[in-house]
Amino acid sequence: MRGGNSSAKVFLLHIAVIGILFALNFILPEYHHGVLARVMVLSVVAMGYNMLFGYAGLLSLGHAMFFAAGLYGAGLTAYHFGWAMPAAFAAGLVSGAVLSLAIGLLALRTTGVAFMIVTMMFAQVCYLLTFYFSEWTRGDDGLVLGQETRRLFIGDFYLDLTHPATRYMAALALFSVVLLITLFIVRSAHGRVLVAIRENEERTKMLGYDTFANKLVAVVVSGVICASAGAAYALLFGYVGSSFASVQYSILPLLWVLLGGAATTLGPFVGALFMYYVVDITSSYTSAYLLIVGVALILLVLYFPKGILGTIRERWIRWLP
Amino acid sequence: MSDALTISGLNCFYGEVQVLHGLSLTLKKGEVLCLLGRNGAGKTTTLKAIMGLVPARAGSIKLGERQLTTLAAHDVPKAGVAYVPQGRRLFAEMTVAENIEIGLMTRAKGKATRDAVLDLFPLLRDRLGQRSGTLSGGEQQMLAMARALCLEPEVLLLDEPTEGLMPSMIAKIRETVAKLRERGVSTILVEQRVDAVLSVADRVTFIENGRARETVSVEALRADPAFVQRYVGVG
Which residues lie closer than 8 Å to A250 by C-beta, 6 or more apart? Predict the structure, then answer.
């Protein structure tokens, strides 16, 4: 649909972003190095959320459950059963896939506000389950994954995720893979159908598309992406707690996506980065930092109504994906 | 002429309100059948029922020998029925090319179909990169028809395609419907403009209170304008 020239530009842009993030590993001060690793992982949650909200137009308020599914899937298997990192990460992905498939089959019977409320309810159930099974999860206190759990030996090869540089590169690897997968999906036939569903579901159906099946695929892909971030978070930062399943982690990805630009591939990262630093910087000056954050968000909404990259795309760079 | 589409004893409801009462009609292969009637008579509901958007509680809708009422709504277009709804309903954020592409993706012969469709609407060739929401009303109608024709339908359902268009665009739409008939596409046209009906239709079915009251040829309608006066209230 778009020209080859535009596709090349889009691909190069994404490779350039990955390249810049790679280079930053070697030049960033320690504090920002850690922040960026965390932001990259969290922006993967936002990318997963964007797949459903930005492209398919389904507003969920329950994505914390998918993040938590990955987090606990990896964390519990590593902590209680001593699974090695790859197996624990895979367990996180499978947890996310199973949960998102089940939730999708149920929640997609609703639309609009009802979908939002149903997803929020399921997420609350998952949140409460983390307390109900506190013998395993330790509820709010959570589980701390020891250093030995976050090390991987394969022959002579040795991977230590407690080391900042390794952790950064692992976060970058996850971010890069998910970013490129997202780019591929949104430019594929399935991605175009999702946009058509967002714009007019009935019309899409009238063109011969099974909109339920397409939306279900979107929920599962979105859920697995969020779960991958959860699993990575548990293994990279070594903590698994109930707070990550709370409603806050359902609202934050929405905020990041809206700030960065819904239905833009890089918007979730830009939104997460922007939000993280606005909170970080303002909170170092005043305890009333949320007031400043609020003003910043209002200004952003006024001048960038479609999010940072969404507005840039609309006004200046039309080929931005 | 054999029958392309047959509707028999169709009952449809919105909630508990019955809107189609045993409606029956027949569309012959390669003809343009116009549905005429007052607002609320059930014309659009008939089209929606054919597409599976309004479920049929009784009766049958057959495309050739194939029963459509048992199909899921998204399978009806694949069976060979395309629908251009009132108000066009394009994907406004997508370009003209993207709108056509999305229509083509369920078809194997993408390129050939795309060329054939654009040959019907040459004006769209110059607008391929333009966002469809920024097209004029007439251009949007052409794109809506083009997108539906990407499905290579046997039967085309057009709901008030000339609504709100300027005369030159109306003439182009009529011309296109005539060309489609030459290609063997059977069309059900819901239309309020009697002049448009007379210029393009083969037969006219008058719908009143959810029932097909009478079907007459266009020649009969020309000869006796009282039909229009009786069922539409103008003439």
Answer: A60, A61, A62, A63, A64, A65, A119, A120, A123
